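[step 3/7] fold_predict: job queued, chain A
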Amino acid sequence: MAIDWVHELLVSIRLIVAFLLGAIIGWEREHHGQEAGIRTFGLISLGACSFGLISIFVTSGDQGRIAAQIVSGIGFLGAGVIMRHSGHIKGITTAATIWCSASVGTAIAFDMYVIGILTAAIILLFHALRNTKYWSLVSNKKIPPYNTNKDA
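[step 4/7] structure written:
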């Protein structure tokens, strides 16, 4: 069986785009002192894309099962970052961001670049809004801004 190099290149581009979008999301989280950062989000998005591509090219069995398991598998991974600390729950936003980052990778896998890029942009937008003076119009939580001091 001969390798279709053009097809392989196009598939490789999907993987690279998925990784880069996930890494950008991770950079934002890492920049604000969160444990899960560039590598975590980049790899999650890459993995979701890879599994999505595998599900596309599987010729026997149910193709949707592989992609469907991304949702529950990443949910399990995200649950691992949720912690109770001093009576407060921490990590829920990171868990949700991990889950959404997987959707970015899956969208890229299915050749839905606009959806993948738009999803990544929305994720970044909502994390950026948290650091504006207008955030209090959306949320009435009394949480201090992200700790940007790494020594604290």
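[step 5/7] annotate
Helices lie at 5-31, 38-57, 63-79, 92-109, 113-129, 135-138.
The mean pLDDT is 80.
exit 0
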